[in-house]
Write a structure and sequence with these properties.
The protein contains five helices and two strands. By secondary structure, it is mostly helical. It folds into two domains: about 30 residues, no CATH class; about 90 residues, Rossmann fold (3-Layer(aba) Sandwich). A two-stranded parallel sheet has the order 1-2. Helix 4 links the parallel strand 1 and strand 2. Helix 3 crosses helix 4. It is elongated and about 70 Å long. The protein starts with 11 loop residues before the first helix and ends with a helix. Bound molecules: S-adenosylmethionine. S-adenosylmethionine binds next to helix 4. The site of S-adenosylmethionine has 11 residues, from helix 4.
């Protein structure tokens, strides 16, 4: 939706109020993210997929070090509290294999839903 603001002469207050009303309608029609989902989905890379790829590549050594430090083995059970979009949890799932289990836990239902979708790919 394209929003335009016209302010002309004596009716400008009225037009401003109408514009605000249209803006509120526009904003409430958008999907709202909780603050952590908004950060992981959008804000940390400014909506730029190339920057997101760069971030994920930069995080990979840290992720691998976390997994190595946990000394995971096939069959282990892992609880990732604050799993976000699964950076650590999906790597843990590879380490524990089909006989193991990873429990994804997060305060954000949106992020858990994202993890469910990623797991299904
Ligand atoms: C900095 S992000 C890290 C996400 C992920 N672990 C990673 O390394 O990419 C912090 C995560 O913790 C979650 N979180 C914050 N407070 C929480 C709480 N009280 N219980 C569970 N998760 C929480 C947020 O929703 C967010 O996904």
């Amino acid at each position: 939706m394209k929003l335009q603001l016209w302010i002309t002469g004596k009716n400008h207050y009225c037009q401003l109020r109408q514009w605000v009303a249209r803006w509120e309608e526009h904003v409430t029609a958008q999907p709202q993210h909780d603050q952590w989902a908004a950060w992981l989905f959008q804000r940390r890379h400014g909506g730029d997929p190339e920057l997101l790829r760069h971030h994920l590549e930069a995080l990979a050594p840290t992720r691998d070090q976390v997994i190595a430090n946990a000394a995971l083995a096939p069959g282990h059970t892992v609880l990732d509290v604050g799993c976000g979009d699964g950076l650590i949890a999906f790597a843990a799932a590879e380490a524990v294999g089909l006989t193991g289990k990873v429990i994804f836990s997060d305060v954000s239902s949106e992020l858990l839903e994202r993890c469910r979708k990623l797991a299904a790919i």
